[in-house]
Model the fold of this input.
Amino acid sequence: MRTAFSRLALVAALATTAGIVACDNDSVLGTAEQVGPPLLDMAFGPALVTTYPTVTSAITAAATRDTITLTLSNLPPVPAGAAYQAFAVDTASGTAVPLAGRLIRTFTSRRPVNRDSSVLVNAIDTVASAAIVAPADTNVRYNWRLQNAAIATGNFIVMSVVPIAQTANATVAAGARWGFSYGRYRAGTSFSSPTLTFGQYANATADRFPFAIVGGATGSFWGDQVRVRVRSLIRPPLGFKYVAWLIDDRTGITYRLGSLVSPVPENAPLDGVDATQCAFCTRDVITDAQIRYTGAPVAFDAYSRITLLLEPKGSADATVPGLSGVLGATMPTSIASRTPGAGKLAGTVTSRTTNPVNGATVYLRGSTSNIPALVGNAGANGVFLFRSVPIGSYKLLSIAPGGTTPSDSVNVVIAAKPGSTVGDSVNVTIRIP
Done:
């Protein structure tokens, strides 16, 4: 009886202190108070997508050795105030010479031919003498022919994130880390064509290291808040930071939760740990940090996963996530199960003169994705129907019969009906010249 009385007294004291008025009946404690929303735990592991920047090189065979060609892919999209630049570095002097040259950009997208097959389409453009590259999407591949006399005297090619094109030589201080991708192309009088390593460059071999996924995280949802504790992450390469995103693999929609921050109670952004030490950093590792979102309410059930990724730093935040994932977790079942049911999307394909077009290809892709999600064909009278479309924002595109290039598009939102879990039926018209 004494124990039961003590428990009840404690509960009553807590209720009085907190000023809580709602009461529930607990079979063990009797009257109990609910002091907050429940925790919904997440199990974190390596991110679902872990594709880091890839850079291969080819050194000229000419006696001058003053030209090197880089092939770059999977570069994360950069925000305003950031770009990528290449440097020829001499480890003996620490001099980094900015490079420029002819740049060929290849934009790759996938377009459906019919409901059963699709085609990859490449669009190519050329810049005569480019000093920087600034991708807006990860589907861009670069072939960059750089020419400078400093290549023959340097021995490393290093990629860096810069605010604007650098024209003056830089100095890599002894013991300092610099750049995010590096490869040695000269040793004495021997030249080679290396594949660059994604990580931290330094003049001293002992201070260089490749980036790797280490550490772990435990997280939970607390009402409208997300709290994730992260431990033992490698410090990001220079010019990068860790950022958390919500991603839905069904529709391609994304939501930026924000940068990695220091532990409670500071909750300070850790955007600068690529270059400077912090109270929670060792020489190579961020020992303790957190993802902490306490902003406006988010419909978490509209997303399939949360991921922590590497993002280039600029004067603004990136508007779309890249592919350089580090840690991630799928949405808890209790949240995912709240996702409203799929809706229907119907419509008509017409010509510019409003005549129906039979046999046109129509397809849906996520509002921020280049990959078709659903593909169909217009039948008699130009009518098409997608019977089951997940809740989300899409772009609907049409392709003329026998063609491969979209001729019209329209934004479509499949949203839940008020008071129901059934998606709205949307009827749209899309045109072909």
